[in-house]
Design goal:
This protein is an alpha/beta fold. The protein folds into two domains: about 1-70 and about 110-245 and about 330-350, TIM Barrel (Alpha-Beta Barrel); about 75-105 and about 245-325, no CATH class. It is built from 13 helices and eleven strands. The strands form two sheets. Strands 1-9-8-6-5-4-3-2 form an eight-stranded parallel sheet. The protein has a three-stranded antiparallel sheet with strand order 7-11-10, with no helix packed on it. Helix 2 runs parallel beside helix 4 (about 110-120) and helix 8 (about 220-225) packs across helix 13. The two termini are about 35 Å apart. Bound molecules: flavin mononucleotide. Flavin mononucleotide binds next to strand 9 and helix 9. Flavin mononucleotide binds near residues 21, 129, 178 and 234.
């Protein structure tokens, strides 16, 4: 029988987070504690995807979620825009000695090659960000008994996800860390808060709704469930876990800079994403950039250098708005704490 979200003992999904955050140890610990562990495979090679899914299988017999970006075709930017985007990055001290070259096609990885390890390992859940996967992908997942979810930032996207035949929708509120999952990069974003979006989607759709954005405690999970969610997807709360592959600077900033705040920027990848305010974002504010994901490729060497030098001011520190509530501990322990808080919140709501 195919997996369904209501089979989770604890209605918590550790969010897929691309960029090395999701390790097999993190995903398996969350699943073994009754939740759903995830991998964000946005730009991963098929070999890496296969290795991670295989390693997770060694650590848990429970459900795992494999998550992918839906890349949209993108035209080669004008030479002028390439020139201005590179010149803007050169204003950063860290970029001055770097060779920044305009990206060459293909601009993004081949989703069909990336999905091969999925059909082989058959994780229980497959999710997509930035739009709908091709109908043949949904059909193949259905035949393989894999449960499919897609991110929505507004009601119109939720309706499209249900009409396409997906099994659930992830309601990504404006509090969420990382990239906005809007179907079109340049569309007007309604910026809806998580609980507002969960209420809208759960009232209008038949498929289950997962709440994502700004949920840090089990009490937040119970509020999301009371608003109509079937489960809560939490990213930032898990970034600071012992098993998280977030860089040391990322963890350090999350835990020691509670008043710095988050901000949206296009400057790292070309798409709107929320992270901790840092020097890169400040200097690049209002500067020209390449479209997604070309800007991501253009900034990759620079970001790698920043990671190598433990320089939190020039790497992407994706984080949700409630990051100051993040609690550093092992994932198994965090799940136990979240479960207790959730049960307490749920029982207060039932017996006020
Ligand atoms: C570091 C980071 C990376 C993320 N990468 C992805 C990703 O690859 N795919 C995806 O669907 N969502 C991604 N997200 C968004 C999460 O799935 C989720 O919507 C978000 O973390 C929820 O908000 P919160 O961080 O406040 O818990 C990312 C979020 C963060 C913080």
């Amino acid at each position: 029988m195919a997996f369904a979200l209501n089979q989770l003992r604890v209605p918590i999904i550790q969010a897929p987070m691309a960029g090395g955050v999701n390790t097999p140890a993190l995903a398996a610990a969350v699943t073994n504690a009754g939740g759903l562990g995830s991998f964000g495979f946005a730009y991963s090679s098929p070999q890496k995807i296969s290795d991670d899914l295989g390693a997770a299988k060694q650590l848990t017999a429970g459900p795992i979620n494999a998550n992918f970006f839906v890349f949209h075709p993108v035209a080669t930017p004008s030479v002028e825009l390439q020139h201005h985007s590179i010149a803007a990055l050169k204003r950063l001290p860290i970029a001055q000695d770097l060779k920044l070259l305009p990206p060459e096609p293909p601009y993004f990885p081949d989703i069909h090659a990336m999905l091969e390890p999925v059909w082989l390992h058959r994780p229980a859940v497959l999710t997509f960000h930035f739009g709908l996967p091709a109908p043949e992908v949904l059909e193949r997942a259905r035949l393989a008994g894999i449960c499919v979810g897609v991110s929505a930032t507004c009601l119109a996207e939720g309706h499209a996800i249900e009409a396409a035949g997906a099994d659930f929708v992830i309601a990504q509120g404006i509090e969420a860390g990382g990239h906005r999952g809007t179907f079109e990069p340049d569309m007007l974003d309604e910026d809806l808060p998580t609980l507002t979006l969960v209420r809208q989607l759960s009232a209008a759709l038949r498929i289950p709704v997962v709440a994502a954005g700004g949920l840090m405690t089990g009490g937040d999970v119970s509020l999301a469930m009371a608003a109509g969610a079937a489960a809560a997807q939490m990213g930032t709360a898990f970034l600071v876990c012992d098993e998280s592959g977030a860089t040391p600077a990322h963890k350090h900033f999350l835990l020691t800079k509670p008043t710095r705040g988050t901000v949206f920027t296009h400057a790292f990848s070309g798409r709107r994403a929320q992270g901790l305010r840092n020097e890169f974002i400040e200097v690049m504010h209002g500067q020209p950039h390449l479209p997604f994901p070309l800007q991501n490729t253009l900034t990759s060497h620079l970001r790698q250098m920043a990671v190598q030098h433990n320089d939190g001011e020039h790497q992407s520190l994706w984080a949700g708005r409630a990051y100051a509530q993040a609690r550093p501990m092992g994932a198994q322990r965090l799940m136990a704490v979240l479960e207790q808080e959730y049960l307490k919140g749920a029982s207060i709501r039932e017996n006020p």
